[in-house]
Amino acid sequence: MASYLITGSARGIGFGIVSLLASLPASQVGKVFATSRQNNSSKLQELIQQHPDRVQFVQLDVTDKDSVKRAAAEVERALDGKPLDILVNNAGFMPWASGGIVDANDLAETFDMNVVSVHNVTRAFLPILAKGETKKVFNISTSLGSIAHADKYTHLLVPSYKITKAALNMLTKQYALEFVDAGFTFVVISPGWLQTDMGGESADLTVETGVKATLDIMHSKTKEDTGKFFNIKVAGWENKEGPNQYDGTELPW
C-alpha cells in the first residue's frame, strides 16, 4: 500500500485525486497527505472526517520555503521512518491576459507558482521518497505547455500559464535525468480540460473522469517511463474533433 502527498488538495484536481485515493482499498493506498495553504475547504474537511486514519491534512504554501520545510518535517514525523512513495505536484496558477505575451504582467508570479515551487517541494521531499522503492513524482502539466501544439491553442489567452507549464515539463525532464540511476520516476501528466473552478463548466470532462484517467497513468508508469509527458486516455475522446483528444499517448514537447 503506497503513501501519497498531493499539493493543492483543497479543490479541483487535487481534491479529486485525494477523494479517489481515499476510496481505494487499503491494499493499494495507505496514507494520503492532502496539502493546501489553508484547511478551509468544507469538502476536504468532510473527507478527512470520513477517513481519519487515511487522509491527513498538512498545511503547505508551496510558494513559501519555510512552509515547505515545515510540511516535509511533519510528513516525515507522521510516516515514522517509512517512505513517502508518491509525490503529486498539482498546485498551479492560470491567470488570463487581455492579449498575448506583451500583456502578460504576471509571468514572474506564475513562474514562481508553477515552476519554482514545484522544484522546492520536490527537493524538500526527495529524502523521504528516497527511503523507499517506489520513488515516483508526478507533475501535473497541460497540453497547452507543448510547444509542438502551441499553434492550435492561440485562442486561449493564458500565455504565462503556457510558458510556465513548458518550463515545468523541462524541469521534470532534468530531474528524471539527474535521478535515473537512483531509481526515481519523474513523469509529466496532462489531465485534460476538466470542469473545475479553473477549467469552467464548459470544459470537456468531469473532474471524476479526468482524475480517474490521471490515476491510471500514475499506477501504470514505471522507471522505464521516467522523463516522459503523457496524455490521459478517455474512451470516445481518442479521435475527437477539435483541439483536444485524450488518447493516452506520449505528448510532444
UniProtKB/TrEMBL annotation:
GO terms for molecular function: oxidoreductase activity. GO terms for cellular component: cytoplasm. This is Uncharacterized protein. InterPro entries: Fungal_SecMetab_SDRs, NAD(P)-bd_dom_sf, SDR_fam. Transmembrane segments: none annotated. Gene3D superfamilies: NAD(P)-binding Rossmann-like Domain. Belongs to the short-chain dehydrogenases/reductases (SDR) family. SUPFAM superfamilies: NAD(P)-binding Rossmann-fold domains.
